[in-house]
Amino acid sequence: MKFGVFDHLDDAGAPLGALYADRLQFAEALDRGGFHAYHLAEHHGTPLGMAASPGIFLSALAQRTRTLRFGPMVYLLPFYHPLRLIEEVCMLDQMSGGRFELGVGRGVSPFETANYSLDFAQTQAMYHEAFQVLLKGLDTEELNFEGKFYRFSKVPMLLHPVQRPHPPLWYGVSIPENADWPAQNDINVISLAPPQAVRPIFDRYRSVRCGLSKPDSTLYGVGRHVVVAETDAKALDIARRAYPKWRASFFWLFEHHGAAPRVGALYPNTFEEVHALGTAVAGSPETVRNFIRADSETTGANYFAPWFAFGDMTLPEILQSVDLFAREVMPALR
């Protein structure tokens, strides 16, 4: 099993500059701890995601780390002009010496989509077309493409990534039917669903790859809220305080429009309820080890991406989780 980290970079109630500075220290700790990758969400106009331009934050992270891989989870492809994104991916991969991980997606919030003057009914088709342009542009000297939304003729591609033909790809999955496309295209996946719902997704993902005689070389992982402290009681105190702040950020934009998110049931009112769903844990290193063992047995995941930083957690609380996890959890499970 490999270990990464997922981060919304949500509003912690601190000044924005301090939030970014703390998260960069967080990334440095992940680098020292031997984590595989840092995955950063992209959101707009909501306290759930304060890294509205992931590439800017990740460029700073690239200079503050040495071995940690990193990337968006995910770039919202319809929100970008493909040429602009191709150049950004190349720059980030070059600036990090080939450590970039390329997460791609459509964007799930109709409100964020509308704020960018995009038609939510068309963004799925835009996404798939933009994905084709992105991969083609990363691995060619001259871009030619004719589609419904994007057209390019003899565009010189002067920037190239270190990792050829392109950096490793990532995609979020929530239902088994969505596992076919990433499995067919060698794309790593992460699911945030409860363990019992994840197993059918990963079984289908592996089955598709097996049917195509593809090697079992991709990562299929889960994201979970995780707090580690010296004792269960100390960890629970932090989680009970921090989770409602994160949840308020998650629901904020939808409530602003008098609506509710489609996946709202995954995030009930209290941390205890999330723990009962199997998507969160707060405890000592032993408690967390046991949780991950049970989770991986149920889901079949080979990648575990905890959310160590969420809500109003302080930097010392976050760094304590990272340190204990790296020293007392990861070695026992690798």
Q: What is the number of beta strands?
A: 13
What would you call the structural class?
alpha/beta
Number of H- or I-type helical stretches:
11
Low-confidence segments = none
**Ends: how far apart?**
5 Å
User: What does the main sheet amount to?
Assistant: 8 strands, parallel
**Alpha carbon gyration radius:** 19 Å
* Mean pLDDT over all positions: 97
Helical content (DSSP H or I, runs of 4+): 40-55%
Strand-and-helix sequence, N→C? EEHEHEEHEHHEEEHEHEHHEHEH
Shape descriptor reads globular
- Portion in beta strands: 15-25%
General description of the model:
The structure is a single chain. This protein is of the alpha/beta class and 334 residues long. 47% of the residues lie in helices and 17% in strands. The protein contains 11 helices and 13 strands. It has helices at 16-33, 54-64, 82-95, 110-115, 120-138, 180-184, 195-211, 232-256, 271-277, 285-299, 315-333, and strands at residues 2-3, 5-7, 37-40, 69-72, 75-76, 102-105, 142-146, 151-156, 169-172, 188-191, 220-228, 280-283, 303-307. Strands 1, 5, 6, 9, 10, 11, 12 and 13 form an 8-stranded parallel beta sheet that branches. Strands 2-3-4 form a 3-stranded parallel beta sheet, with helices on one face. It has a two-stranded antiparallel ribbon with strand order 7-8. Helix 6 links the parallel strand 9 (169-172) and strand 10. The longest helix is centred in the C-terminal third of the chain and has 25 residues, at 232-256. It is globular. The mean pLDDT is 97.
